[in-house]
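Complex record, two chains
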Amino acid sequence: MKPRHHLDEATVLSFAAGALSPEMVAVAATHMEVCGLCRERLSGAERIGGALLGQQQPAVGDTARGARLREAMLGLLDEEPKIEASQAAAPASSNDAPAADCLPSPLQPYFGRSWRALRWRWMAPGVHMIRAARGSGDTLILLKIAPGKSMPMHSHQGTELTQILQGAYNDALGHFAPGDVADLDNEIEHQPITAPGVPCVCVAALDAPLRFPGWLARRLQPLVGL
Amino acid sequence: MSSSDPQVRDAGYWSAQMAAVSLRRDRDSFMRIYDHFAPRTRLYLKGLGCPEAVAEELAQEALLRLWQAAGRYDATRSSLSTWLFRIARNLHIDRVRREPYWVPMDDEPGWVDKDDASGFSSAESHAEQVELQQRIEHLPAIQARLIRMSYFEAKSHQEIAEELGMPLGTVKSSLRRAFLRLQLGVRGQA
C-alpha cells in the first residue's frame, strides 16, 4: 500500500506542533502508519519544533528557584527509571485479536480492536456508520458505504480528514483507495462515488458540521447529529 | 537567538554532550544539557499555558527522560533539541490536555525509519539544524506568526483563522508555504 493522496503539509505541521484535536490525530496517525512520505514530513515538522525550542530565550531571573530545581535533578539521576505502565502493557494487549481483524491502532481507543465486533448502525440505504462515543468536541466516525453508491454533494464549514481503510471512492479530486487520505477544507465541495466491488470503509474526523444541500440534509442531519 | 551570545552552542556541541551521556553516563555533560535546555523547556511549556509549577514539573520529567533513555539516542538521526521537543510535547498532551486517546508518536528519535521502504533518510546534520534556525528567523512576518501560534500555543487552523480573522484556506496555505520554506534547506530540494 503506497498512498497517492497525502495529508496537507499544514496538517502535518499542526500534528507535529501538538495542535490537532485528538480526533484529527487519530485519522492522521492512521494515515501515517501506512505512509512513509507523511512520516518523513512529520519528522521535518518536528525538527522545526526542536529548532523553535532551542531558540527560546529564557530570562535570567529567579536563580534560587533554578538552583533548587537543579539540585532536585541531580538527586534524581541515581534513581532507577520507572517503566511506564502504558509502555509495558502495550505489546501484550495488541495480540488479542488476529492481525487481519485488527483496526489500525490509532483507532482502537475509539472503536475497539476488532473489525468483526464493530456494531454498524444503518443510516441511509447502503450507508452505515459508527460515531465514536467520546471525544474532545470534534467528531470521529467510521463510515461504510456500499459499492457503486453516490454520496450526497456536500461541503464543509471546517476541516474534514478522511482515511480510506477498505474499498475505494472517486470524486473530483481523484481516486481514493486504501491508505489514501482526503484532507479537505471549506473551499471544497465534493460528491464521492464509491467504486464497484467491496464496500468503502473510511474513518473521518470533522471539526464542524457537514453541510448537505436539500432533502438529504433535512433527513440526515438530525439523525446523525453531524 | 543571537550568535554573539557566548552561551549559544550549536547542535553538534549538544549532540557530543549527549553522546557522552549515552556512552559513559557522564553527569557533567548531562548537567550542561540540563542547564541549557531546562529553562527553554519550561518556557515552551509555559507558552502552551502551563502554570509555572506544572511547567517546572514537566520540564524536569522531560530532562530526566533524556538521562534515562540516553542509551537509545542516535545523534545521526535527530538533534537533541528535536528529541526533547517531542518528549515535552507528548508530556504536555498526556498530562495537561489529558487526552486519553492521543496515540503518541514515539518519543524516541528515528522511529520514522521503521519503514525502510519510504526511501527517505531522516538523518539530520548539524549544518542543516543551523540553516533551519536561520530560515526560521527569516520567515515573512505572517508565516512566523502562524508558526508560533501552532507550535507555542497549540492552536488549530480553525482557531488561528478565528483569532486573526483570516479565511481558513489562507491559514492553511500560509502554514504550507512556511513549512516548504523551512524544508528547503533541510531537504536540499524545492
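Note: The two ends of chain B are 26 Å apart (CA to CA).
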